[in-house]
Amino acid sequence: MREILFLAHRIPWPADRGDKIRSHHILKRLCEIAPVHVGTFADDERDMGFAEAMDGLVASRHVELRSKPQWQAGLEGLVTGQPISVRSFASRSIQNWVDATIASGQISHIFCFSGQMAQYVPADFDGCFIMDFVDVDSAKFESYAEEGNAFMRWVNRREGRVLGKFETEIAARANASLLVSEAEAELFQRRTAASTVMALGNGIDTGFYDPEGHYKKLHPPFPDPLIVFTGQMDYRPNIEAVSDFAQHAMPVIRAQHPEATFAIVGRSPTQAVSDLSMLPGVQVTGAVDDVRTWLAAADVVVAPLRIARGIQNKVLEAMAMAKPVVASLAAAEGIDAEHGQHFFVEENVGAEAARVCALLAEPSSGLSIGKAARAHVINHYGWRSQLTPLDRLMGLGTDDPQ
After folding, report:
1. Residues of the chain with CATH 3.40.50.2000
2. Comparing C-alpha atoms, which of 328, 331, 336 is closest to residue 381?
3. What is the dihedral of CA 361, 364, 369, 374, to 10 degrees?
4. 3-203+383-393 CATH
5. 32, 93, 103, 265: which is deepest, by most CB within 10 A?
6. What is the pLDDT of residues 124-162, one digit of tens each?
7. pLDDT of 192 above 50
8. 226-380 in CATH: which number?
9. For residue 255, what is the enclosing H or E element?
């Protein structure tokens, strides 16, 4: 092995949201194997400020502020016949940097994180190309096409179809296609007929997400009981999840527990999310300094997603913090844990409300589940063990030199 080119659709620093947590830990492991050159985008000026955090770890970097408006990406997609989500991340300057880095003759491996970045991998690259799709994005857009106005249904239906074709083409070129769970890997394999598909699971930093760790406590403390949801609040599945729970579960819960508060914790809340704070017992925090502060204060953590792909880090984080988690079927998919032993999995918002009421009525059961959840996460979801397959994929343990 010579050197690695690592491409990611978001700068893997700081590790403060699901996709960045995964790319962050993968990048750190790759840097232990060989020199790594990183090409990536920053969503905003805040993220651009973290570019220097990679210095001293990576061999070189190209971080670019992504500023293309969605309407432009849409027009480009229609004109070129490409997926809109791919055109959203199309950049001539990144392509030039990638081409120059490969032309140096030092790159033996390309690790591409998220399908949008596969457009930068030359078709004639003769080294090892590992593609981490993470989730089956085309299936996500297909599910979006089942609702909304006629125009958006058409847009999402087209995106699902065109993106599915793109995923199939990329998988045929890659030496390995990675998905975040066995369920996603099986779905991807059925849709693409690719022969080199495997699961590479997410981990959790149980030293950081530790109920006995050092972090600020919520002040002033909320009146009991507190129900918490965490996530990026401009992401459609999260928006739909909290809207459903606030509007349909909270009235049921507050009928039995009038002081119950539902805290929606996460940055970039849309107006629709912010408006939920007008409902009784609902608070929208926006960005917070440390999500552990809110997880530690929670009596129950909920993950009522109706659309979800892969493994939900928010569930693992809450479990690591020894909190009882009430998850939807979609949010629980891919997580190796037992209903009623490590967390609770409910089939609809009514069942979620009933489970939360039961946990609030009997706090000792929540403490017991939370304790078992943390022990389970420690035993099964450490990052080091989850990323072990990378060694084989990168040629370690073979005659290929590091």
Report:
1. 3-203+383-393, 226-380
2. 336
3. 130
4. 3.40.50.2000
5. 265
6. 999 999 999 999 999 999 999 988 899 999 999 999 999
7. yes
8. 3.40.50.2000
9. helix 250-256
